[in-house]
Design brief:
The structure is a single chain. The radius of gyration is 20 Å and the shape is globular. It is built from 13 helices and twelve strands. It is about 40% helix and about 25% strand. The protein has a single domain, classed as Rossmann fold (3-Layer(aba) Sandwich), CATH 3.40.50.300. The strands form three sheets. Strands 8-9-10-5-11-12 form a six-stranded mixed sheet, sandwiched between helices. The protein has a four-stranded antiparallel sheet with strand order 4-3-6-7.
Length: about 290
């Protein structure tokens, strides 16, 4: 084996994209992230949200069963703004989405949705109430479509909370008008769709209820690069053309921060950093720990 081949063999992949000389364990990432963590006051996160939060979390303590995962978390995102959550596995990123949508136990704190003229405390609402009454939709990770149902039937399922069955069908037609790729496959079972088309269907199904806030969990997971670009183009259109507020968890931290207006770095259930997406991309510590270089 040549020296070059030996060097290539010795390389292992790090936490995110890019190769590094040694594997960094999640424990090591946590320790190093804690070392670079900075105090993030409420004034800073308010400023990042232009002091006009549409979705706001105040001192949230939440978890599963008796286990506390989030420890007094604060978060703010403005209407039509996007926020990407990054951090090591187990940092509490998905728990934030779960808490907003009603999948966790809330020990204390508040979750507020809506603009300054009509804020709504949604902390204790059920997931159905949050979707129907507060306009908050949760887009699951991959494989959440109903494979044996047609594309059209999957969209109808997205409108199960509408007052009239016809309203779901009307909303589905709007989706087909917007996304010709799905319209061409409306009668096909969802199982025949490509990975990118399934993700488009998952996003579109959430749109049937016409939400204002999209909670997006790992939009790029399991997708080929060309489909990843397509999905982020769709999300960009939803944010910048339709004014949706997007809160995202994304393991591909570089892609997520390139997309988002701002990013939060989570470590052990606490907010370690908060800044614009561009500033976090340029931060050498964030690059070293989460961006593969």
């Amino acid at each position: 084996m040549s020296e070059i081949e030996k060097q290539e063999t010795d390389k292992s992949f790090g936490y995110h994209k890019g190769s590094v000389e040694t594997v960094i364990s999640v424990e090591d990432v946590n320790k190093q992230a804690e070392a670079i963590a900075k105090a993030v006051d409420v004034e800073k996160i308010a400023k990042l949200a232009n002091n006009k939060p549409f979705l706001k979390i105040d001192n949230l303590v939440a978890g599963y069963g008796k286990m506390e995962i989030l420890h007094g978390l604060n978060l703010q995102v403005a209407k039509g703004q996007s926020l990407c959550l990054i951090g090591p596995n187990g940092a509490g990123k998905s728990t934030i989405l779960h808490s907003i949508f009603g999948f966790t136990k809330i020990f204390s704190g508040q979750i507020i949705s809506g603009d300054g003229d009509n804020p709504q405390d949604v902390t204790r609402l059920s997931s159905s109430q949050k979707l129907k009454n507060a306009g908050i939709a949760y887009i699951l990770q991959d494989n959440s479509v109903f494979p044996d149902m047609s594309v059209e039937e999957n969209l109808w399922m997205g409108g199960f909370l509408k007052d009239r069955p016809d309203a779901a069908k009307e909303a589905a037609e709007k989706v087909f008008q917007k996304y010709d790729r799905l319209a061409k496959r409306r009668s096909n079972p969802a199982r025949v769709l490509s990975g990118g088309e399934r993700r488009l269907l998952e996003i579109s199904r959430a749109l049937v209820m016409e939400p204002e806030v999209l909670l997006v969990d790992e939009p790029s997971i399991g997708l080929e690069p060309r489909f990843i670009d397509m999905v982020f183009e769709i999300l960009d259109d939803l944010q910048n053309t339709e004014g949706k507020t997007i809160l995202m968890v994304e393991q591909n931290a570089k892609k997520g921060l390139e997309f988002a207006d701002m990013g939060y770095v989570l470590v052990s259930g606490n907010l370690a950093m908060a800044d614009t997406g561009d500033n976090l991309l340029a931060n050498p510590d964030v690059g070293r720990l989460f961006l593969g270089g």
